[in-house]
Amino acid sequence: MTAVSAELRTPRPRLAAGGALQLLRYLAGRLVQAFIALVGMSTAVFFALRLSGDPALLLAPPNATAADIAELRRQLGLDAPVWRQYLSYLGDVAHGNLGYSYVQHEPALTLIAQRMPYTVMLALSALVLSVLFGVGAGMVMALSRGRLGERVLTPLVLAGQAMPAFWTGILLILVFSVWLRVLPSTGYSGLSSLILPAITLASLSAATIARVTRGAMLEQLSRDYVRTARSKGAGTFRLLWRHLLRNISIPILTVVALETANLLGGSVVTEMIFAWPGIGQLTVQSVSARDFPLVQAIVILASTVYIVINLVTDVAYGFIDPRIMILTKGGGVS
Amino acid sequence: MRVPKGLILAAAVLVTASTMSACSLPSTTAGSTSTGAKTTLTVDMSSYPASLDPGLQYDTDSYQVYRNVFDQLLHRDPTTNQIVPWLATTWKQTNPTTWVFTIRSGVKFSDGSPLTAADAAFSIQRILDPAFASQQNANFSAIASASGSGQQLTITTKYPSPTLLSYLTTLSVVPMAYVKKVGNAAFNLKPVGSGPYVFSSDIPGSQVVLKRNDAYWGTKPSITEADFRAVPDVASRVADLQSGKADIATDMTPDSAGQVKSDAALQVLSAPTERVSYLAFNTIHGGATDNPAVRKAISEAIDYSSLINDLEGGYAKPVDSVLTPLAFGYPASLPDYQYNPAQAKAMIQSAGAAGQTITMATSPTYDPQIVQAIQADIEAVGLKVDIQNTDQATYLKKVQSPTHSWGSIRFGQWSCSCLDADGVAYPLFHTGTIWSSYSNPAFDDLVDKARQTIDPTTRTGLYAQAYGVLAQDVPGIGLFQIESVYLASKNLQWKPDAQQSFFVANMKLAS
Question: Which residues pair with B409 in a beta bridge?
Fold first, then answer.
């Protein structure tokens, strides 16, 4: 028994001294890459915004004269040459100053900080729901292939993937707020107001996660080690938790990480429908008002979240599957 | 492959657990649970106020909220639209450029300090201060200085300004001492005024809560709390009304009004505003539209009643100029625009313009259905219309460029927030202003003269002539006067007005 189960059991990751150094070097490389990506993003958004139109025109009241608009432009610092605006922008960003909203008259960072908790709250709830439902449904679909479980869940998953958020959202509001009157329709008013937007947001991610889980499960179920473990008398739960879950977790982790980064960037449609005071709504408002400093700050933040989550995911791969760590030791991971 | 039942069971537990966790979140504040006589008003707006400091922004979603917290220097009578006393009880003009106002005594800000003429003067000075970067600067740019002593406010203008009083109805008075003490940034976050409501709390981006000011000098409002919520999606605002979450929703579409007409618990409230949908012509470098006969023909090609009834759902009124009858100086004797496609076609042909292409500039801000309807109407009389749709900032840059190379015709909406003939004639059609692609020295002369006097009779006479010139030259066509559309619970008693002022103090909720 002991020999076989030792082989079946995936070994816990152990870091040798050399491994730790390797990991540090790897992390340092990734951080440099992240920095370059961030500078690139900031530059791209800066110039893209400047090509998109003059905010002074949108901010001036309709009866403003050309002189009034020129004065407004001067006040906003938009009269300076673009290269000078760019240099002072880079300088400010390097000092952690992401600018001052033209429209809302507050520091961009303050505005983002006010909205961030709502987006994080919504994103995490949606993430928990979609992981629980997605992984669960994916497993049931794989395990009951061709039987009732799969036949019931497949249309559900397909529907989840096919229904756009603006439709799911309005449908849920109609049913639970207008007809049944059990849940609030819009805005933030405690945890109950989180339920409908979280389900709306989760429905898309859950479907993706379910499909990836099902695929990974089916692949693993056909492997020899599953048959061996069964023949050695491993119980059902033991098989699922000890062997299958760890082996299917790499593809799931990848898709979950991507979904997390998407969700944390603010879900524009869901936040608009449910009047959720998060980053998504702020993004729409700032883009349509050409609120340059705010748009730049949001893009920098969203890119940072993306980069950090990708980095964390890559490191997590190594801990889940030490074979990936061994590859890193060989210097093969980019 | 056989899979044990236990394994399926384990996975099924996961699914159930996830569903359970969604349902077991506490729902303490679910639904609207009002009991007894309702004194809290919940308002759904399309966006969160950009500022609560009344010196900064003057967009509808901002002033609908902050004008309840502050008192304005002057008001307009909601039925007659005449300027009436508010914080200023009397006023007189001591010379063509000097006005003296007496400020109501006994008015206190909600922090207990008395409101004096110095506060009123300060409220003007900060808007004029370039460092403050107020977007209302242009409304008050005629003012050279403002000073206050005791209860006497003196305003001098750079030139005689007949619209000064109109703009002073939009001036909210802020407490000088408090603003100087806390600074502009803190004041914007936690405004203090003398109005019927006080700022209570907010969730940035989501809602602002106002509570009744029990020390208010005027009539005590019946609504004790007003919750202004930002709900950007129109369908969600309708759902909020239907579910009882909101009592009134602003900025509604004619479509949504039709949708709730059958709902016994809801009502549509609407009022004509001074906002007009219009077409402006490029008469300088517009190609075919440089010819007044072509412009006149286009004014007869448009099916105005179809625009009003089919596209605006009846929530609009026909007009005969870009000015509405609500404004001072409105000439009653303008010829009506007539829909006469046969005559329009003949005019296009005799002008030799048949088959020519004209370019129509627009942006997604303006209803594409209306733009397309206008395109179809004009094409029906023998011109070709090429719609150039760009985003709003690009559109503005193009049409405001002094080169007048933006095309031939553009669709827009106009309101000067001043209810005065000058607010349309000057910015839209005077030579050299950012919106004007029209130049007629005789017209400029009339408008300039009307700006130099404040005598109502002289001004009315000058505007009758000026708008007569516009009717001849047709540099623009008023399509229809826009109505503001609100949807509300049947319990709400309120009559909206032309200024879209949203004074909660004038509202009542029946229990």
Answer: B281, B360
Q: Does A274 touch chain B (CB under 8 A)?
A: yes
* Main-chain phi, psi angles of B278, to 5 degrees: -140, 165
Structure tokens at B492: 């709400």
Tell me: the pLDDT tens digits for A171-194? Answer: 999 999 999 999 999 999 889 999
Q: Which of A127, A186, A242 to mutate to test the interface with B (most CBs of B within 10 A)?
A: A186
Report residue B173 as tokens: 């008075």
Q: Two tokens at A115?
A: 């909205």
Alpha-carbon A9 to chain mean position: 32
Instruction: Tell me whether A182 touches chain B (CB under 8 Å).
Output: yes
- Domain regions of chain B by residue span: 272-483
Q: Per CATH, is B272-483 categorized as 3.40.190.10?
A: no
How close A322 comes to chain B (CA, Å)? 26
Fold held by A115-287: MetI-like fold (1.10.3720)
Mean pLDDT confidence for A234-238: 72
Closest A-chain CA to B418? A63
> How close, in Å, is residue B359 to chain A by CA atoms?
21
Other CB atoms within 10 A of residue A20 CB = 10
Averaging pLDDT over each range in A142-151, A178-187, A316-325, which range is the top one?
A178-187
Q: Do A236 and B7 touch (CB under 8 A)?
A: yes
Write out the two tokens for B481: 């006067």
b (16+ CB within 10 A) / e for B135-167? bbbbbbbbbeebbbeebebbbebeebbbbbbbb
Which is it for the CA torsion A311, A317, A318, A319, positive or negative? Answer: positive
Taking an 8 Å cut-off on Cβ atoms, the answer to whether A277 and B15 are in contact is no
Strands in B193-311 per DSSP E? 197-203, 207-212, 225-230, 248-249, 266-281
Beta-carbon count within 10 A of A122 CB? 29
Whole-number pLDDT of residue B152: 97
- Interface check for B240 against chain A (CB to CB < 8 A): the answer is yes
The model's pLDDT over B24-72, given as tens digits with 9 standing for 90+, comes to 333 333 334 444 568 999 999 998 998 999 998 888 889 999 999 999 9
Closest CA to A290 of A125, A61, A87, A59: A59
pLDDT of residue A102: 85
* Cβ separation A184–B11 shorter than 8 A: no
Q: What are the domain boundaries of chain A?
A: 115-287
What is the model's pLDDT at position A266?
Answer: 61
Q: Residues B482, B275: contact at Cβ < 8 Å?
A: yes
**Interface confidence (ipTM) of the complex:** 0.81
Beta-strand relationship, B357-362 and B492-493: unpaired
A190 Ramachandran zone, left/alpha/beta (phi>0; psi -120 to 50):
left
- pTM exceeding the 0.80 threshold for the entire prediction: yes
Cβ of A57 under 8 Å from any chain B Cβ? yes
DSSP state of B131: G
Is the separation of the CB atoms in A275 and B229 below 8 Å? yes
Separation of alpha carbons B261 and A8, rounded Å: 68
Q: How far apart are CA A188 and CA A180, in angstroms?
A: 19
Q: How many CB atoms lie within 10 A of CB B507?
A: 20
CA-based diameter of chain A, in Å? Answer: 88
Closest CA to B414 of B469, B465, B479, B360: B479
Q: Do A237 and B10 touch (CB under 8 A)?
A: yes
